[in-house]
Each structure stands twice: as structure tokens, then as C-alpha cells.
Structure prediction request, 303 residues.
Amino acid sequence: MNILTLENVVKNYDKHCAVDNVSFAVPKGSIYGLLGPNGAGKTSLIRIITTITRADSGEVWLDGEKLNAGHPAEIGYMPEERGLYKKMKVGEQLMYLAQLKGMSKKEAKKNLMEWLEKFGITDWWGKKVEELSKGMQQKIQFIATVVHRPKLLILDEPFSGLDPINANLIKDEIYQLNKEGSSIIFSTHRMEQVEEICEYISLINQGKNVLSGKVADVKQDFKQHLFSIGYSGVLPAELAMQDAANANFEIVERKEQELLVKIENDEASNALLQYLIQKGVHIRAFHEILPTLNEIFIRQVNG
Prediction:
């Protein structure tokens, strides 16, 4: 079951095609990475999903229903360009935004105080937003995004401007919300962050979806059968001369006490390890090197 499905979505602005026939599905209960460089079309897609704009063509479903005017109450969206009112007090602003999402005044106050207590910032209630640092404002924006417990949570560069401690704090809350049932779309151009957080991805470039799937499956599909071998001592003479015609491998790079080796296929890895042991090489480490999402993206775009 999918929480969100897009089919052949197109969005044009004047003569520019911002979203070019994009299709993908976000499984319910997943953390889904929407990746791509700045200007790739990620924000245009998010604006369509959140009903801020309409697609020129194509269809969008949220939790099995065609996207409609009632769905924004079931979505939490934290934009990259934070949208807080600088002159308003934190408490007033959070109450206002929570009630916009359909919460009663009593329910909003209760839930907001729980979040403020969780972050240890209850004394911010009466402060104006402009009195807070960028990182503090981001915490307030995050609370405003999640207070109504949305089915679908969309976070656009949620760690931008946060120090490592606060980034980890927000990350922990993302995991907890996901554990409690929220499906999450994590939009970013920082692909290294996604490898840690997301189970599924779509790579967007120039408005097109160039790749979608499970992160683990995508990395397996693009692997090049490269292995790192850490060893102790001295390599046998035939290895030092790279005389390995019968071993179905190629030494790609030599480092101090480490070899980077390319083999023919997965099945050959055991044979390679056995070959090295038979040659008297003392193995300290043996692991496959999978490509990063950044490397995969560059290969896809250049290809």
C-alpha cells in the first residue's frame, strides 16, 4: 500500500518544464528520499503534492484517494525557506498554525506544550520569532510542521543551518514519528544524508525522474564488483607482480597494507579470498565497496 502515488505528472512555467512526466510511489510507513541538485524540480513536485499548485497533467493520489482540497490537513510540510512570522510570539504563531490544520484550541495547546517540553524550550512561548537564532527558529518550524500528527510529512532540507547536536535531535524525532506511523518524504541535494536515513529514493534531474527504488537495491544494481582487502605483512611475489591470470581478478589500486580489487562477479569473491589465503596472505579485512548515491547520480546524469 502506498501513501503517495504520482503518475505522469507535468508542470510547466511559461516555456520551462519544471516537472517532466514524473511517476513514483511512496510506500506507506517509509522514509523516502527525493533527491537532486538545486533547480532539479523537487520543490515544484512538493508544491503539487501539497496542493499549493496544480499539475498541468498527470494524477496524484494520497492514501488511495485522488488529491483534493481536504488533503493538506493530513500533510505536514516544512519548506527549505522557513515561513515563520518574525514579529509574532512563538506561542501565538504555533497556536495559529496548529488550528489552521484543524486542531481545536485545547488540543493544539496540549500538543504544543508536549513538543516544547520535549525540546526543553517551554520558555520560548512568549518570545518573538525574531529574537531566536536560525537554529531555534528551525525547531519551532519543525514543531509547527508535525504538531497535527500528519499522515505524510514532507521535509525540505530539514538539517540546513543546524549544528550537529540539533541535527541529531531532529533526526531522532523524524525516526520516532516514522515509528509512530507517519510516512516521510525527505527532500535534499545532500545525498550522503539520505544513505543514512532513507529506505527508498527517487533521483530527480532537470524535471525528470532518472531513478527510483530501494536504496539497497539501487546500490546493488550499480555496483562494480570492487573489493577492499586489508592485509598484514608482505604480498607474495606473484601478487606483487600482479600475476593473477587464473584468479579472475584485477588489482585496481595498491595502498599501504590494502588492495583495491575488481572481480568478475559476486560468485568470484569467495574464490578470490580462498586464492589469497592459499598464497599465504594474512587477511585483516575483506569487504565490498558499493557506490555512493552521489556517484550513482553522477553516472546516471552523465549517462
Q: What stands out?
A: Residues 164-179 form the longest helix (16 residues). The two ends are 33 Å apart (CA to CA).
